[in-house]
Amino acid sequence: MAKKITDRSEDYSQWYQDVIREAKLADHSPVRGCMVIRPNGYALWENMKEALDGMFKETGHENAYFPLFIPKSFLSKEAQHVEGFAKECAVVTHSRLKSVDDGVEVDPDSRLEEELIVRPTSETIIWDAYRNWIQSYRDLPILINQWANVVRWEMRTRLFLRTMEFLWQEGHTAHATKEEAVEETERMLEVYRTFAEEYMAMPVKTGVKTESERFAGAVETYCIETLLQDNKALQAGTSHFLGQNFAKAFDVKFQSSEGSHEYVWATSWGVSTRLVGGLIMTHSDDQGLVIPPRLAPTQVVIVPIWKSDEQQENVLEYCDTIIEELKELDIRVKLDDRENYNPGWKFAEHEASGIPLRIAVGPRDLENHNVELARRDTLEKNIVDRDGLGERIEKTLKQIQIDLYDSAKKRIDENTHTVDSYEEFKEVIDEKGGFIYAHWDGSSETEEKIKDETKATIRCIPLNEGEEGKCMVTGKPSRQKVLFARSY
Amino acid sequence: MAKKITDRSEDYSQWYQDVIREAKLADHSPVRGCMVIRPNGYALWENMKEALDGMFKETGHENAYFPLFIPKSFLSKEAQHVEGFAKECAVVTHSRLKSVDDGVEVDPDSRLEEELIVRPTSETIIWDAYRNWIQSYRDLPILINQWANVVRWEMRTRLFLRTMEFLWQEGHTAHATKEEAVEETERMLEVYRTFAEEYMAMPVKTGVKTESERFAGAVETYCIETLLQDNKALQAGTSHFLGQNFAKAFDVKFQSSEGSHEYVWATSWGVSTRLVGGLIMTHSDDQGLVIPPRLAPTQVVIVPIWKSDEQQENVLEYCDTIIEELKELDIRVKLDDRENYNPGWKFAEHEASGIPLRIAVGPRDLENHNVELARRDTLEKNIVDRDGLGERIEKTLKQIQIDLYDSAKKRIDENTHTVDSYEEFKEVIDEKGGFIYAHWDGSSETEEKIKDETKATIRCIPLNEGEEGKCMVTGKPSRQKVLFARSY
Ligand SMILES: [Zn+2]
Ligand SMILES: [Zn+2]
């Protein structure tokens, strides 16, 4: 079989596209910058959603749904927000088409009085609603999350990592005190870190963004950042402390238990289908996708092999007992008994689509009371006893989850450097890439200069402050080292 | 406490709005015709989604996601489809705003070459993708469902029942043969019927639509129809056999196992947040929302009652044992121990929001080893023994589900009439409303005449054909009685 996936060492960007195509995760759509998420990709996103949704609910949040459209005037109510989001967005101006000779045309008579913006994020429409919901301290906190599609008119797109329309969740909370809101912001950052590391097996660094990289309208933006196989960083999730900015913009006050009227404190936080891109670039290899077992839609695939009808019957019966055993253990198992495809073809397909474990069963395995067990991550194959297979698989799935995390952690650690001079910084960023810790004087000018000269940005200012020092560029005092990288 | 919900007998439409407001299901939004689905409403929709999604997966379907935007030219590819859907829709014409003195304006330089339509339904964008996915009979069937938001520019909207943006699922399947596609259409109709009756406790009639009421682009539209408390019908779900119309419009052919190239057969089917409106108008009463237990986000609420601190401690401990027992039985239970609200206020709130069972526990209940158990549907209260409470509640929840269905069935049966003459028809429709079976000659002219004169439409042609007869209007031959009603 011809190799369908480009090697990473040859062309990483092409490899990424090949993996997505061969694993049937997504397609480009005829609408520039939008993607079609295929069943394999969507099932992965569904598992991510389910895990995150459970964590949100455990921390007291409820889901709700707000309108897709935002009146144009809403965007300009929060001064910084409009700067960040009004620029590139989808604008609805008309509400009707009319038939003409060769198709349909926009009916000029249907022009809207006020244009509508397809939401790039929902702070404004949500805070407009919160004004009606919040009167007293008894109405607080409001802890709401929304699963939705959003649109940002991106010029350079890449499947999952940056698309014009994407799926995400956005949490929007309202609190009586600053302390509570900051606590919530940090709590959700921790939820994201836990999800990334424990479900996606994707190690992340946490910290806050510099002023220039902050969310438009936020007082502080917390983030999780990971390092992908090509040594570029990916912002995988953000949690914003919004202060009273949106409460002031939408005039949302509450009566405190003492009777005073005060502005409400806010947070928002989100992760998106971009996580799927991060997952792919964290674990996959030249054979295709690798998915951590906790998120794999199918954890074990069974491929029966036979020649005669009699063999077929016996092999399938044997497989049935395995399926039953695995289902008892809540393992997501699938039998691939398609007759139109041969085993070799199936093996390649399951490898490309990243199923963590494959069991192959042929007539000889029946005789010997064995199965062949293959690990997707290591590509290791073993003949193992049918007895105790369920437990063995359960253990192996857990081990794969750990091994994937450990191996990603090792890769990221090896590609995280600390430098003392700007010269060393430029050398490392050019020759190795990766994460770099270095001192910075805290000014936007220096940050900008570094970005212009090296294409590296400050990914975050770590929360656990390190030692003081001197900025590698200006020599001015630096409170702590910050984390740099080139990024997606 | 002042009565916050208008009686149904007084003003049914106002009652509906009051229930939605008091149960905190949804709000009107500042975008005309769009709604904000509040946590209580969304949790109900989530439960519906979960049940339906399970049924879709059991029948072999997978979820996927297609773009929000459809290029304008796609809509005109299927001639009937464009007639039905191109008329009132949201049209994106620009991709950028620019800052001006007092806010933002649409940047005229960002005008799109081809306008984008916010999907009113996704047949066109999906069949464009299917062309790339389908080459051989081995690629069939494709059994895909999408959970999404869609937009139809409605002029007269009503929360849940008809909104400009709504949430729904749309199944889109592709098959090698006509028989398979028809079978799929009927299978999904049956899934919808089962869901409506077994989960929503909402009895429905099934049948096919007349030509004039058919989905734009369908060969046959199957539907489930229910009758609401005000004796108006509601179309609650549709399943369309699309023939080869979309395959021809988007040139989707497959190579059969014999080597010939043939157009693919299609179906599509959908239900939406409109179901929430149907649920409200099927079961609720003058006290507020009534939710069948199988879909209730909270099935049992416990209200502890105390005066002294010591009582509080003891009552809460007693409640804990109940919660533990109910959770063991997978019953969704919530403790309402808010200190800012008194028990009477809580009772009214839980009644308005439709929680099927309420347990009240005070100090005297502890002494007597009792609880007070109140049914939301019948408003019946009983002092019951603490021993065996879990089982009793489990049984009662099942009974409520049955009783709600039976009572809705009885109401619909009582309001379903059969008439022989047009005079009788007009009398019944004016004086009683409800479902009416009557003979019809099968022509669009007669259908139109009846609609003009009585505002009643043919809701469906029942699948189990009845006896032949003569049209009540024209006296021409009729193959069977069909089902009429005024509708939402
Ligand atoms: Zn180093
Ligand atoms: Zn009658």
TrEMBL record, chains A, B:
Which terms under GO biological process does the entry name? prolyl-tRNA aminoacylation
The cross-references to CDD domains, in alphabetical order and at most eight, read:
ProRS_anticodon_zinc, ProRS_core_arch_euk
Listed GO CC annotations: aminoacyl-tRNA synthetase multienzyme complex; cytoplasm
Name the SMART domains for this protein. ProRS-C_1 (SM00946)
Q: Which Gene3D superfamilies match?
A: Anticodon-binding domain, Bira Bifunctional Protein, Domain 2, C-terminal domain of ProRS
InterPro entries to which the protein is assigned, alphabetical: aa-tRNA-synt_IIb (IPR002314), aa-tRNA-synth_II (IPR006195), aa-tRNA-synth_II/BPL/LPL (IPR045864), Anticodon-bd (IPR004154), Anticodon-bd_dom_sf (IPR036621), Pro-tRNA-ligase_IIa_arc-type (IPR004499), Pro-tRNA_ligase_II_C (IPR016061), Pro-tRNA_synth_II (IPR017449)
Q: Where does the source fall among the domains of life?
A: Bacteria
Annotated ranges, domain Aminoacyl-transfer RNA synthetases class-II family profile: 32-292
Q: Which keywords describe this protein according to UniProt?
A: Aminoacyl-tRNA synthetase, ATP-binding, Cytoplasm, Ligase, Nucleotide-binding, Protein biosynthesis
According to UniProt, the reaction catalysed is: tRNA(Pro) + L-proline + ATP = L-prolyl-tRNA(Pro) + AMP + diphosphate
Per its UniProt record, what PROSITE patterns does this chain match? Answer: AA_TRNA_LIGASE_II
State the Pfam families in the record. HGTP_anticodon, ProRS-C_1, tRNA-synt_2b
Single GO molecular function:
proline-tRNA ligase activity
Q: What is its EC number?
A: 6.1.1.15
Query: Is Cytoplasm a UniProt keyword of this protein?
Result: yes
Query: Where in the cell is the protein located?
Result: Cytoplasm
Q: What is its main location?
A: cytoplasm
Q: How does it assemble?
A: Homodimer.
Task: Tell me the domain comment.
Answer: Consists of three domains: the N-terminal catalytic domain, the anticodon-binding domain and the C-terminal extension.
Its function?
Answer: Catalyzes the attachment of proline to tRNA(Pro) in a two-step reaction: proline is first activated by ATP to form Pro-AMP and then transferred to the acceptor end of tRNA(Pro).
Question: Its family?
Answer: Belongs to the class-II aminoacyl-tRNA synthetase family. ProS type 3 subfamily.
Q: What is this protein called?
A: Proline--tRNA ligase
Q: Which organism is it from?
A: Halalkalibaculum roseum
